[in-house]
Amino acid sequence: MATRRILFGLLAAFPLFGGGAIAAEMPYDPAAFEAAQKAGKPILVHITAPWCTTCAAQKPILSKLEAEPKFKDLQVFDVDFDSRKDVVKQFSATMQSTLITYKGAKETGRSAGETKPEAISSLLDKAI
Questions:
Q1: What CATH number does domain 2-12+21-125 carry, 3.40.30.10, 3.40.50.150, 3.30.565.10, 3.30.470.20?
Q2: 21: helix, coil or strand?
Q3: Which of 40, 64, 67, 126 is the most buried (most CB within 10 A)?
Q4: Is the Cβ–Cβ distance between 126 and 103 less than 8 Å?
Q5: From the CA atom positions of the chain, what is the Rg in Å?
Q6: What is this structure's pTM?
Q7: CA 68 to CA 65: how far, in whole Å?
Q8: Is the Cα torsion angle 108, 25, 18, 114 positive or negative in sign?
């Protein structure tokens, strides 16, 4: 996962190599999340676990959507369901594979266990 983020960061930095705008994705950090909210950014919080098959199904869908120009400003925060129970509770999530969208500080949508690309895209649309 970290390798993918580094690669996407490099591609975005060098548009000549086919990059371009790619959504910023990072492990959840309270300060970065708060800064994104204050800046009015579109935000996706993904509650995920490495053993979760639904999460694994969501990841390529999210990657494809994050690469779309309309989601270029989307800030994506991954929250590990197992090691960040405090954050999972803060977001009132009860299971991994939960997707929560925000437009700035306002929550605009949430789903759990969704793997249909159209439904996930529709959820992300609520953040922009």
A1: 3.40.30.10
A2: coil
A3: 67
A4: yes
A5: 14
A6: 0.79
A7: 5
A8: negative
Alpha helices in the chain (DSSP H): 2-13, 30-38, 53-66, 85-90, 117-125
User: What is the tens place of the pLDDT at every residue in 4-15?
Assistant: 333 333 333 333
**What distance separates the 2 farthest-apart alpha carbons in the chain?**
43
| Tokens describing residue 37 | 């909210």
Quick one: pLDDT at residue 25? 60
Structure tokens at 50: 């490495």
Domain boundaries, the chain: 2-12+21-125
- For residue 26 the two structure tokens come to 């990072």
